[in-house]
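[User] I wish I could look at a protein chain and see how it folds. I have put the entry right below:
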Amino acid sequence: MKSFPVGELKSHFSEVLEYVKNGERVGILFGKNKKTIAMIVPVNQKTNVKRKIGILDGKVKISFEKNFSITEEEFLNI
């Protein structure tokens, strides 16, 4: 992963976008210690983070009014 300080990022932004376009992640360094505070990643790049299904099971309660109804189109926001 390449990293750029904020000032350098500003002056080489087109170059940075080329790295991202080619599938690389680019870190943004900030402060005196040049600590990575953010990353620019390609939109279509999938992360390796797996979501745990049912993480809120038993922790939340969902209830609906008896007269609640929603059409399939409303549910799908079409």
Notes: The beta strands are 2-5, 26-30, 35-40. The longest helix spans residues 13-21. The chain has one domain: 2-43+54-76.
